[in-house]
Amino acid sequence: MMQDLAMTQPPMKFNESMLKDLHLTTFELQDFLHRLIDFQMKNHSQPDECRGYCQGDIYKWVGAYNGIHGYVSLLICIFGTIANILNIMVLTRKEMAKAPINNILKWLAVADMFVMLEYIPYTTYQYIYMKPGEKDLSYSWAVYILVHMHFTQILHTISIGLTVTLAVWRYVAIRHPNGSCANFLLAHSREAILFPFIISPILCLPTYFVFKVRETLEVDTKEHEAMYHVYFDTDSMLFRFNFWIHSVIIKLLPCFILTVISLVLMHVLCEASRRRLKLKDYDNPTKYAIQLNLNEHKSRRPPRCDRRNDRTTLLLVAVLILFLVTEFPQGLLGLLSGVLEKCFFAHCYPPFGELMDLLALINAAVGFVLYGLMSKQFRTTFRSLFFKRHFGSSEMTRLTRVTTTCV
């Protein structure tokens, strides 16, 4: 309606005498016009080219999940926080800390733990304490949202960097175990872990300038209450550049690297399995005829170091595949938002926000389950730590010796 009036009436010109009669200063007039433009843009209908974007049953399903996201994410965060604390306690044990891969997993658990610890108050207030459709437009909550965005993005980027480091480390250990690259990584294992903590805040640098807390005025109420929200200019070049950095460099590029490394690791597992079957086929059946069945069975089993190697490789493949399932959809949505810009970002990206958070939280929480299912050393250390003080000391010594030579 205000737009129609502006189109039918001639523009009003103000001079200094009129401003004096209205008891207004130039600054107050400019502030009023600025707020008026904000109000018109907020209530202005979407252009025709954005109509029909992102409609269908999938958005109904996503909307149905968004109604219960607070409770689901809270349960995952509580479980994941406890699980990662247990991971840290187990992986910092002397017999576990000798392997560089376990140190990477430990710091990955630390980053994931802090992500979920910070998400607990956010989801409790945003999705459980506040009623559906209710919004907190106070200055303190706007500042908290801004800090929440930056904090979680930096820590999640650190987790991505540590996952890539883990994959590269395992690739070098499998393909070039005695090469110069492997020796270099062993000599600089601490620097390799520290690097994601340094580079992640730098990669997230454009985000610090894109989002800011902005004040608007509620003109529908008599009190003219000031409202605050996190603002970003979708028309700015920096906003589009940030989307490209976030989607391509932080999300899709690590996904590509991890896909290649995961395929290589799975190929190594298949080659090892075929090699063992071939060795079994060429066994001389008369060679062990005079031996007991138990000894014959033991002679045909692959070396313990090889079995340990395969379990470790299989564990890391599972971690990498879970990471791909979590991060690739986020990178794809971010890339489409950077390419298609306004319409896609306004209509398609926001409904998937809670679902993307859910996938990231699941990825951060299930490490304990994966380690327990696929690592015998992890299970043995966990039992000795929490159930019996001196459980399996000889077993732990043997496992430690295997770890330091095979991983």
- Compute the separation of the termini in Å: 70 Å
Using the alpha-carbon principal axes, give the shape: elongated
Which homologous superfamily in CATH is the superfamily? Rhodopsin 7-helix transmembrane proteins
- Given helix and strand content, the structural type is mainly alpha
Reported for the largest beta sheet, the result is: 2 strands, antiparallel
Provide the domain count.
1
Helix content: over 70%
From the alpha-carbon coordinates, what is the Rg to the nearest angstrom? 29 Å
Helix count equals 19
Strand portion: under 5%
In CATH, the architecture is: Up-down Bundle
**Mean pLDDT over the residues:** 75
Looking at the structure, the CATH topology is Rhopdopsin 7-helix transmembrane proteins
Task: Count every beta strand, where a strand is a DSSP E run of 2 or more residues.
Answer: 2
Q: Give the class-level CATH name.
A: Mainly Alpha
As laid out across the biggest beta sheet, the strand order is: 1-2
Which residue ranges are poorly predicted, with pLDDT under 50 across at least 5 consecutive positions?
1-14, 43-47, 286-301, 390-407
Helix-strand pattern: HHHHHHHHHHHEEHHHHHHHH
Pfam families: 7TM_GPCR_Srw (PF10324)
Transmembrane segments: 68-92, 104-122, 142-172, 193-211, 243-270, 314-335, 355-374
Subcellular location: Membrane
Protein name: G-protein coupled receptor dmsr-1 isoform X2
